[in-house]
Amino acid sequence: MLLEIQDISLFYGPIQAVSGASIHVAEGEIVAIVGANGAGKSTLLKAIAGLVPPKSGSIRFNGQDITTLAAHRRVSAGIALCPEGRQVFPDQTVADNLELGAYALNLSAADLSAAIEEQFDIFPRLRERRAQPAVTLSGGEQQMLAIGRALMSRPKLLLMDEPSLGLAPLIIKDIFAAIRRLRERGMTILLVEQMANQALRAADRAYVIETGRITLTGTGREMLASPEVRAAYLGGG
Ligand code: ATP
């Protein structure tokens, strides 16, 4: 198992955001966590990235207990977070944004440009826009840039927080096509989404989280067929 979270509880001061959640992700899987606004999805990803310390429970990654490991060490261990709302550096160029994603690796100039070229192979549209400031990109292109920047740290596990947020349906399809391409390249992906449809189609397995608790789990296909999931997260259709 690449990632194994056991019985984790997460708080912001007195507010409990996640209660006793257990999830696992095997190498090469796409796993989705779906849930409503405020259910605890982002908090769970932040805990894996080392940005919210667990009150109880454990996180194992790649054979190592990382429950208390500092966030920057988790990046070196192979965990990258593509944050909600993309958070690209607006005034920096596309190439500079990508470069910043690799800062922890201390790459040589040659390795750095090879790594940037690799992102351009995955997201050809970024290549055409390499010298533009990120702020001039469309929302979908900024999402691709945010994914590319996360991939620059050469992760074993990519965490994605609401990659579809604020994007039009056709663009969301593009983003999920890119997510599938990444899996074909061997990337393991844990993503959280409020808009469950595309996420469940792409996912090998999924979890539903409701007010901080995992309430349902199954294959992406099972979840798409589940009446509860359809009613709550797929517009009832
Ligand atoms: P969204 O899709 O809106 O991001 P989410 O499922 O990711 O929702 P979280 O952001 O993880 O939900 O929030 C879980 C709970 O923790 C919510 O009740 C939220 O109000 C609370 N919370 C989140 N961040 C903080 C914070 N910094 N301080 C206090 N409470 C917080």
UniProtKB/TrEMBL annotation:
GO terms for biological process: L-amino acid transport. It comes from the Bacteria. SUPFAM superfamilies: P-loop containing nucleoside triphosphate hydrolases (SSF52540). Residues 3-236 form the ABC transporter domain. The keyword Cytoplasm does not apply. Pfam families: ABC_tran. The keyword Nucleotide-binding applies. Keywords: Amino-acid transport, ATP-binding, Nucleotide-binding, Transport. PROSITE patterns: ABC_TRANSPORTER_1, ABC_TRANSPORTER_2. One of its GO terms (molecular function) is branched-chain amino acid transmembrane transporter activity. Belongs to the ABC transporter superfamily. This is ABC transporter ATP-binding protein. The lineage of its organism: Bacteria, Pseudomonadati, Pseudomonadota, Alphaproteobacteria, Hyphomicrobiales.
